[in-house]
Amino acid sequence: MELNIPNFPVDEIENIIFDFGGVIMDINIGRTLAAFNNLKIEGMKSDDIISGHKKFLLDLELGLITPSQFVEAIYTEYPAAKNVNEKDIWDAWNALLQPYDRARIEMLERVNARYRTYLLSNTNFPHRVKFKEMYRKQFGENFDDLFIQCFYSDEMHLRKPDQAIYKEVMETIRLNPQRTLFIDDNEANITGAREYGLWAYHLTGGESISDLFVPCSN
Predict the structure, then answer these.
(1) pLDDT reported for residue 141
(2) d(CA 47, CA 54)
(3) All domains in the chain, ordered by first residue
(4) How many Cβ atoms sit within 10 Å of the Cβ of residue 36?
(5) What is the Cα gyration radius of the chain?
(6) Are the C-beta atoms of 147 and 48 separated by less than 8 Å?
(7) Which UniProt keywords are given for this protein, alphabetically ordered (predicted)?
(8) Where are any strands of DSSP class E within the chain?
(9) Measured between alpha carbons, how far is 87 from 148 in angstroms, rounded to an integer?
(10) What is residue 27's DSSP assignment?
(11) Is the pLDDT of residue 47 over 90?
(12) Residue 53 has pLDDT above 90, yes or no
């Protein structure tokens, strides 16, 4: 498979960095918000999860608090939830993770034959455990093996769109930014990547990464 993106120097791209949520796996934040509401954990908004507007959500994404501290923060932030057990909180938190699209995963495997591929995700430990478990159950393999290397915000203590995370990724993989494409569904993350010097494509309007590739011509 090879890139087919109008107005991009696709012939110069050798490396691709993929976002995870909304790019590799579909995310339905409404399911988590509805599950929390059912547990009397009311008032959390979609943008709180995406942008980390609530400090404890940001801290979880940066790996600055443990899962247990996250649960305690839920109890503090939403007192009506104090009688909710931890399993129900984690089930609600992970409800946004949707089953993998098999065709998309198979396409990624073909893309790997043409490009060096990496993953860069703003995520958190509970989500990582769950989406890797889902991948293993669905495909019988390890999710991280899809890529040369995976970069996760909670392990790096950095997050998109901060310049520091792009800098650390590129210094780690030691590749030319001008030969590297970053694909994400968040406009702020795309802006940050472009400011660093990467080529970046904003996946929008119901697009799938499958729309960006065609079979190799040779």
Answers:
(1) 96
(2) 9
(3) 2-26+99-214 (3.40.50.1000), 29-94 (1.10.150)
(4) 22
(5) 18
(6) no
(7) Hydrolase
(8) 2-3, 15-18, 116-121, 149-152, 180-184, 199-202, 213-214
(9) 33
(10) B
(11) no
(12) no
